[in-house]
């Protein structure tokens, strides 16, 4: 009896082993067949043998990444051939793709499979699976494999979608704080792609489009400075990437209404240190002028003028330099540069000249008469400003000029020309 049982066990074991070998051979055969049809573009035949390969290979533990990757290709190609009116077949096909993605997660360790699965769900607007999408995309945030540029752009739209959140927050389905936070996080990923990928231009393009979409609605929120400061702490050594990062930070600060912040001037200064140019000098000067840092504004307007041959901006920068000197209470230099201004700012420049003379009248001259006579010259410039279209009184400060009696006391007459040493200019007694 024992011998009989032993023989039966040996026979059954041999049969089982033989069956396993047959299954393994079938797995290899069906894999080969579906792949041949796939390469030839015969997707229906490829599907037939792919299904058999999936069934037999599962029995002998031979499922792998390649099988699921190719299965996805087959069903996506078949989807293109289904008539659009055949919604039943279309949905069934997409359900199979979804199943392939889901089952493939067990056999595929690459982050890219998860990103592609997330893209599939987002593209089909599967908002009920938002938590799964976030899980699939999480490696991107944690420093894993870089997603494709198109996946990042799709994820940005997904996160901001009103359909996903089921609520309306301004122009997005999230608050301004969250919208800016989403962009900042994804922009970091794009710049990593610009630095390390052959698709650097595509990553740059995605970042630009996301930024433009955000800036279009000029999100202003209390956390903007904090969020952009986080971006300011991380800069690339790659000059192309660095330039894009700096321009991004500058544009965000402008869109968020933070041009008078210290961070904005720091970003502009770093741009100048890395990429010095006349227009950058002018921007930095303008920022410091707004902040009341007139000395720095003067320094950088002068640098801008020294480093440009662009005649379309020279006159504007001279005018702004004059304004900066006036703000710094260096009235002689403000007067000097204001006199040089031509074009559309000349009227305002003439008023600055008048203001420079008037504000220093009481301390400029060897006698009371000379000091009071400065108001005639100031009035001359106010008349020029008025004639050029600026709204200023032509009688401004005349009540502070010498009286008729004071004029005669000096042995002078109305209508005489008088030289004013302080400004090395002449005016008419009146």
In short:
With 430 residues, the protein is an all-alpha fold. It contains 20 helices and two strands. It has a two-stranded antiparallel sheet.
Commentary on this structure:
The protein has 20 helices and two strands. The chain has 430 residues and is mostly helical. It folds into four domains: 77 residues; 131 residues; 65 residues, Serine Threonine Protein Phosphatase 5, Tetratricopeptide repeat (Alpha Horseshoe), CATH 1.25.40.10; 89 residues, no CATH class. A two-stranded antiparallel ribbon has the order 1-2. A hairpin with a 4-residue loop joins strand 1 and strand 2. Helix 7 runs parallel beside helix 10 and helix 12 packs antiparallel against helix 13. The N terminus is likely disordered.
What is the alpha-carbon Rg in Å?
A: 38 Å
H-E string: HHHHHHHHHHHHHHHHHHHHEE
List low-confidence stretches.
2-18
Number of domains: 4
Number of E-state strands: 2
Supply the number of helical segments.
20
Structural class: mainly alpha
Average pLDDT rating? 91
Strands ordered across the widest β-sheet: 1-2
First-to-last CA distance: 143 Å
Beta-strand level of the residues, as a percent range? under 5%
Q: How much helicity do the residues have?
A: 55-70%
Shape: rod-shaped
Largest sheet: 2 strands, antiparallel
């Amino acid at each position: 009896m024992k011998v009989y049982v032993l023989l039966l066990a040996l026979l059954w074991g041999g049969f089982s082993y033989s069956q396993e070998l047959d299954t393994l051979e079938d797995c290899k055969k069906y894999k080969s067949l579906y792949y041949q049809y796939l390469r030839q573009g015969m997707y229906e035949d490829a599907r037939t043998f792919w299904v058999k390969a999936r069934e037999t290979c599962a029995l002998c533990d031979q499922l792998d990444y390649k099988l699921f990757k190719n299965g996805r290709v087959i069903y996506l190609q078949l989807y293109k051939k289904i008539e659009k009116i055949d919604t039943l077949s279309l949905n069934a096909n997409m359900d199979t793709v979804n199943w392939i993605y889901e089952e493939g997660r067990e056999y595929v360790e690459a982050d890219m499979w998860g990103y592609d699965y997330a893209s599939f769900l987002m593209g089909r607007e599967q908002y009920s699976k938002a938590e799964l999408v976030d899980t699939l995309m999480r490696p991107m945030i944690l420093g894993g494999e870089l997603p494709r540029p198109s996946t990042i752009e799709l994820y940005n739209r997904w996160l901001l979608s009103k359909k996903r959140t089921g609520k309306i927050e301004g122009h997005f389905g999230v608050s301004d704080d969250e919208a800016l936070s989403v962009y900042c996080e994804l922009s970091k990923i794009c710049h990593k792609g610009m630095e390390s990928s052959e698709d650097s231009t595509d990553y740059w393009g995605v970042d630009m489009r996301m930024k433009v979409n955000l800036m279009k609605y000029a999100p202003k929120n209390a956390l903007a400075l904090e969020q952009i400061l986080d971006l300011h702490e991380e800069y690339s050594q790659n000059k192309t990437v660095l330039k894009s990062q700096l321009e991004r930070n500058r544009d965000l600060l402008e869109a968020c209404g933070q041009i008078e912040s210290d961070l904005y001037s720091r970003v502009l200064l770093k741009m100048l240190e890395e990429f010095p140019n006349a227009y950058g000098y002018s921007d930095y000067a303008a920022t410091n002028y707004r902040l009341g840092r007139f000395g720095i504004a003067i320094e950088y307007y002068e640098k801008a003028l020294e480093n440009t041959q662009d005649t379309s901006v020279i006159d504007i920068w001279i005018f702004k330099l004059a304004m900066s000197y006036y703000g710094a209470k260096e009235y002689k230099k403000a007067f000097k540069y204001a006199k040089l201004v031509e074009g559309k700012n000349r009227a305002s420049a003439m008023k600055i000249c008048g203001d420079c003379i008037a504000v220093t009248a009481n301390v400029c001259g060897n006698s009371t008469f000379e000091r009071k006579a400065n108001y005639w010259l100031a009035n001359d410039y106010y008349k020029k400003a008025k004639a050029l279209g600026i709204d200023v009184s032509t009688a401004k400060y005349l009540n502070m000029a010498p009286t008729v009696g004071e004029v005669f006391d000096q042995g002078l007459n109305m209508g005489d020309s008088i030289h004013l040493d302080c400004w090395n200019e002449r005016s008419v007694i009146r």
